[in-house]
């Protein structure tokens, strides 16, 4: 279980001003109209011209929270390595709209894994703890002031545990999934795509997703850590290619594998380009086929 802690590897951009909602609605894969007084957080993607992931993001509804007025305000939570490039892109896309796009440094994104965990913290939340919109039961997120006596401390060990937690659930995030196809990264299963949006209907049709992101663990002594090979190809025992590695923390990770090769409730053994074995499985939160 993960107690409340700062996600120090996440950053926030503020998008505010008249027309901010319409502006973001035309760029993202999720329907921003789903944000309201009772639902202040969605998960979504911004795609590049090839229909691949430019950046994945959470959008926090901050209207009437930052300021005591009805000015449309949103917090864009992203990987810090994409902060500057996303800010530049949004400033280009906004044209002459009266919209402000700037860093939002006064808040930290925080995470915990259970309701019991956040009920025990005394930290002052700007937005109440809310379920991570990607998967129910995965965890809870909140925005907390980054200064003051109730500020949560940075904990590097908990950040590493959060990454392992994501890998176990089969969830990619940030730089791990840049330039990937959103459906292959389970964007549809993670509630990051609204297929009734015109933007999405123009880009995707209801075809079969042949490869998807899945969790894996290396099969070796737990005291060792394995580095990612240069050749990311994964093969089965017959030497046939079945997918590729996406990311790893040395003990577990995420890989892109042919869906038909991994049945439900079965652990499948694959091998990397150096012949090292790993086990792949379908996450149990996937819809049953």
From TrEMBL:
Pfam families: Beta-barrel_CAF17_C. It is found in: Mitochondrion. Its main location: mitochondrion. GO terms for biological process: iron-sulfur cluster assembly. GO terms for cellular component: mitochondrial matrix. Residues 210-288 form the CAF17 C-terminal domain. Keywords: Mitochondrion, Transit peptide. This is CAF17 C-terminal domain-containing protein. The keyword Acyltransferase does not apply. Signal peptide: none annotated.
């Amino acid at each position: 279980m993960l107690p409340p802690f700062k996600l120090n590897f996440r950053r926030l951009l503020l998008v505010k001003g008249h027309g901010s909602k319409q502006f973001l609605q035309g760029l993202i894969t999720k329907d921003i109209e789903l944000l309201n007084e009772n639902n202040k957080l969605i998960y979504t993607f911004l795609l590049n011209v090839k229909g691949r992931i430019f950046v994945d993001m959470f959008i926090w509804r901050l209207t009437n929270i930052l300021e005591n007025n009805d000015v449309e305000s949103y917090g864009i939570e992203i990987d810090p390595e994409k902060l500057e490039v996303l800010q530049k892109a949004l400033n280009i896309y906004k044209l002459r709209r009266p919209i402000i796009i700037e860093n939002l440094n006064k808040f930290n994104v925080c995470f915990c894994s259970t309701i019991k965990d956040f009920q025990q913290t005394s930290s002052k939340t700007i937005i109440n703890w809310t379920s991570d919109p990607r998967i129910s039961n995965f965890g809870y997120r909140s925005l907390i002031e980054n200064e003051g006596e109730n500020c949560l401390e940075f904990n590097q060990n908990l950040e590493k545990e959060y990454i392992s937690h994501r890998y176990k659930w089969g969830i990619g995030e940030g730089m791990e999934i840049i330039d990937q196809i959103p459906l292959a990264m389970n964007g549809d299963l993670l509630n990051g795509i609204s297929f009734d949006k015109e933007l999405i209907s123009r880009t995707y049709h209801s075809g079969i997703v042949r490869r998807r992101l899945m969790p894996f663990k290396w099969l070796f002594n737990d005291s060792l850590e394995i580095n990612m090979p240069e050749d990311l190809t994964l093969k089965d025992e017959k030497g046939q290619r079945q997918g590729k590695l996406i990311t790893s923390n040395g003990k577990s990770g995420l890989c892109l594998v042919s869906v038909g090769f991994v049945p439900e409730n079965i652990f499948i053994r694959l091998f990397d380009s150096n012949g090292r074995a790993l086990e792949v499985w379908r996450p149990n939160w996937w819809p049953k086929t």
